[in-house]
Amino acid sequence: MRTLLWGAFWAGCAAGSKYNAGLALLAPLVGLWLLPNLPVAKRLLGSGAAVGVAGLTFLIVCPGVWADSARFWANFWYEVRHVGQGHGEIFTDTGLGWLYHLKPNLSTGFGAVGLLASAFGWALHARNRVWWGVLAASLAYYLLIGAAEVRFLRYTFPLLPVLAIGVGLLWAGARLCLPPSLRFPPLREGNRTRGRELGSPCLQGEPKGGGLLPALRSLLVVAALAWQLLSAVSLTACMVRPDARDQAAGWARATLPEGARIGFPTVPWFYTPPLFAEIGELRWQDRLAAAQRATRYRLIPLAPPEWNAEALQATLPEYLIISEFESRDAARIGRADYKAFMRIVEARYTLLRAFENEPPLLGRQAGMPHDLLYVCPKVFVYRLRSE
Q: Which domain holds residue 28?
């Protein structure tokens, strides 16, 4: 019962941080109902206690539910509608959410080799009921986020522990199957006993295959961990180097003359080089007014509406700054206004500079998740050609 209630407590904490992460409560509940020789009354009592502890914990760590109920529920239902309607055009025409979370999200966040290793690990060990609660909670969460129209990479983070467990199971099972001379570190009897408890296939009669199959499994785990290490180092290096937006802003201040006319296809925001102090304001009306008040340069947001070809043709600013945040999905889905805007850019402008901060070891992957544009976007600066 103590383990059950601790699990419920942490599930309540998870729900207080991210509402749908409260599905973690399924893990201890499933474990409770799988216990042998437990009266139904005790199962029901334990389930009720777990739900109560999780609910009380949620109310404590998320006090807005009772401290400002009206605002909480208004914002809660806004988020529910938001994930059902989509996030602008970022995830338009991206297919099934469950497949999208596998590629590019999890294949980027955990690695394709890591996914393969985890799948093998779970396939070999999932028959043991000790893992069914963890699998049930994770599967429920995966099905939920896959059904939504908003599919950010960060939404898959609660799945990383179960994937890591799968890799660990593959490694542990491979060690148990290897001949003693090849085991590293050496296997102790306590590990062997634990392996039986967790359902190691080699300790349940699986053929050893002369050590070849276990060795291949071990190599798969090593490859998965090596890729993850390279990915972590690569993205960390990307984050400690100057951001492309800051590079572009520094270049503009050092190169462009005061009073230069600089246009933008949308109202500047966090994705734009910071050429005025109020660029982080939340309301686009405030950012638009601040950009128009800027004195060092004449900043010309050609919006609203976005990608306004008529406004571009009428004003033809000397310079044009376009962020990958603005252009990537508009280009991917083939927006008509984007195409019309870019036809004028191609006819009247020359690409002057392209600023980027790419992950140094692995480079940019095709179809990189949108989340990573926060740390490694591209910024393009165009100059008006003289007639």
A: 1-85
